[in-house]
Amino acid sequence: MILFFNVLVTDTRSSVGGMNRVDRLDLFKYALASYACIDIISSIIIYCELGGNYKAREGELRDYIDFLFPCVRHEFHSVSPSTQREWQLVLSNSIFLTTDEPILYMGNDDHIFIDYDLDMLHEGINLMMAEPRDQINTLHISSWTEGVSTIYGLNDFKLRGRYWEAELLYSDASQIVNSAFFRHVFFDLDMGNDYMRRTDNFLTNWYPYLGDYRYPSRAPHPKVKTFLPLRELVRHFDAYWHINVPLEYCPLLQIPEGFWDRSIKVKPSDGNFPLFWKDRIIEVEHYPDGPEYIEIGNISHRLVMTAPHSRVYQNPNARAPAIWPTKFRDLGNGWLPLEEKYITIGMR
Known about the structure:
The chain contains nine helices and 13 strands. With 348 residues, the protein is of the alpha/beta class.
């Protein structure tokens, strides 16, 4: 699998409350570290524009990438394509249009791989790569709350192991895609000179019938197959406040004390800690696979999977549950309750 980042790292981006909670370059380094635990990454391609004072820290970032991925071929470009023409120049001179490997595409510098093992990820990649290569195949790994409510709300999916399968194209800049995705998005669509550093800026977030584009297409709409895990694999560092998910359902992430010097201490109340913390932990009060960790992890999973938010699917025949905050209950009809079997499939 190819790990591909196209990001702008700047301290002028908004965060919870309008201020960044951590140094943005450190946050990008934390995100990179979270993907370094994935054992099937064959090469890394990073396009990264550093804004403001971060430009002087490019050497630090390059050294850190070398440290994280000592045995993986990687290339670093200190620019970030932001128009269709720039994207075409980048893609035309790369393996992205011809490779048979999946591509872990990240247009965000702050989405963190949080799963506690790789089994779920491997299962999804195997499902995705078993599909015909001439269609768009994607694995939607982040913005998970929106994915759950969208696919379940459309009620047009199949259950494949621990994944939902749907003919639904996501444009999120945080997913695993195949080469057909890049060929279609950047060469079949006509986007003119519009600014588009990330794919989610120029396609609608999803469209069930492959016809809802913001830009004209030069080619017929391709067949699309998207897979959504029934457990959250990747989370936005600032969670999902931008779609009004209450923090008690899906809390903000933190860079744990001791991460940089490999001296993290964990306790049962931490629940299932991310896999990439494993070689940075020096003290564990109880065995991390014990019942306390599993119970806490499953409670957290249920909360995130059933979280209310402003993009939740609207269904006129259902009502929001009483446990939801008032501002969501006041919306009246519109909540489609998940069947219990879909919640428990993703649990440990």
